[in-house]
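User: Assemble these into one structure.

Assistant: Restating your components, then the assembled model:
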Amino acid sequence: MTTTKLKPAGDVATHLAAAEAFANSAPGPEWLRTLRRNGVTHFTELGFPTPKLEDWIYCNVAPVTKLAFKPAAGTDAGVTAKQLAPFAFPGWTGPRLVFVNGHFASTLSVLPAPQKGVTITNLAAALATGDQQVQAQLAHHAGLDASGFSALNTAFIADGAFISLAPNAVAAEPIHLLFVSAPGDAANTAQPRNLIVAGANSSAKVVEHYVSLGGAAHFTNAITEVSVGEGAHVEHAKFQEENLEAFHIATIQATLARDSRFLSHSISTGARLARHNINLVMTGQGVDCVMNGLYAVGGKQLVDHHTVADHAQPHCGSHEFYHGILGGSSRGVFNGKIFVRKDAQKTDAKQTSRNLLLTDTATVNAKPQLEILADDVKCTHGATVGQMNDDALFYCRTRGLGEVDARRLLTHAFASEIVNRITVEPVREHLEQVLWGRLEELIEKK
Amino acid sequence: MSKPLIEIKNLSGGINGKQILKGINLSVRPGEVHAIMGPNGSGKSTLGYVLAGRKGYDVTGGSVTYAGKDLIELPPEDRAREGLFLAFQYPVEIPGVNNTYFLRAAYNEQRKHRGQEEVDAVDFLAIVKEKMKLLELPEGMLKRSVNEGFSGGEKKRNEIFQMAVLDPKLAILDETDSGLDIDALRIVAEGVNKLKRPDNATIVITHYQRLLNYIVPDFVHVLFDGRLIKSGGKDLALELEEKGYDWLIGKNGK
């Protein structure tokens, strides 16, 4: 394998200068200014990850670092509601918060009717009003030093979504967070920072949706922190359908308290390079969480999922299902870590990763990574990589379906298994439309 | 006497170059039920797969004429569209494909092939519900994925349910009785019997005589080492049950 030698100082110089300038000048309370400066410090030390690091071995981010770094200072006023029409979920009646280049665009957004105990706004607004939850929770879940990207995002904290639920509050409708990269010749960089705080026994469904309006390369470096309180129930669906020149690096970091439920979906079809870190930490007993994922890529796309189910407490269940569909010369990476700490007895962890290769030139690296320090646990994992199932193909044909139709049906079915776990119907409908289109392309171009 | 629906002449073939069928001769006319019996490894399932057109199962000699056409030349889907149906010994699970959706897609492919209009979801449901009664199937099964998580008995019933909906001219039932308890066996067999008409035919491939108490064959053939070594009426099955296969194999042994 080839390793690319990055000289951290040289490559990060422009990024570092921009981060320092921003951290030194951006407004905000003192704690936030300190946080940003800490981000700069960590970024100085870490630089960008190189393929020499185990977590980045199959994910060479050198092209990201070579892209012109233009952190957006604010929203792009040129974006119109009409341009966003393709990204609306059919029949959606709930709130939609739109972020352009990482900054809240109020004129494009639909905020919900006020609801007691439910705050749905943008981070900049919450900071302006001095919402106590922001200081109490922001950067308390995701480590600044997880990677250079996390540090960089932290140095640039300015805006993103902020959702906060008081104990027992139930968000009336699912919430659509739409992150739009504005069109333009110059590559732009968006670094949204999202925070979801669900109080005890509260409940919400949130959809994080990343799209591009133009075809030019751009860079999204996002972090979403989720705090799920005792007995709370959060469903989080992320759908990344950025353009095929884009670079998308993102972390979802969730802390799950006693008896909470967390349902995570990650659907990734877009971007030239997409890296998704999804880390769930179970800090109380009786947590039940699901990690559900689907990637469908082609051409020269690279999609990399690194997931962590950290069983820090006993009696928790984690169930992970990832499906990959790969055409062209695309590459998929799935690294699923299950960490069962010493006292986490009666852990029930299940992980399945299945990959369907549509061509001989597509590749997948699927790796379960189990670290089990307790002795009374149930952990299962399985990873498969392969071509279409001949038995199923033949079965379909003996019922009268033509070979091409049978292949199409089975490929769609493989995707549906994942999509069907999303409980928000308009999201499923949108996904099906986009995915089916994408799958048709992949099947035809094979 | 009517013309044969399928006429197998001196058929030989096998899997990936390995010769398994060594000259099979069999004619089945509309209205007839034929049973093919034989010990394990005699080539029963291979015959089913060769007739259905499975990849890797090659014909090396002989011919199969089905409804006036050269069957071997047709891809599996065209055989199905021409009314040939194979009920699998091990029905395949297809997660993510709704049972009703799957069956409607198959049904409409066959209608298109016959130049008929496709049936919409509402009309299809009416057809399906009618046929479900035949197999005493719970309606919940329609909403599930094809065969996924079905018990052995449910899978076999689902095969016969598909057969009921697709209404084939020639059905080949491959070990449909294996893995069924006596109640499920009775339901499946009654379903097959109700579908019997003067213009269709059935080939029942089985290891045991038991199924033939319920689906009474007009002809019984014994397959051994790739050849039909004995043919007779339904009494032959009883004789086999009593004496086993050894007395026949002895006569025809290698």
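Chain B has nine helices and twelve strands.
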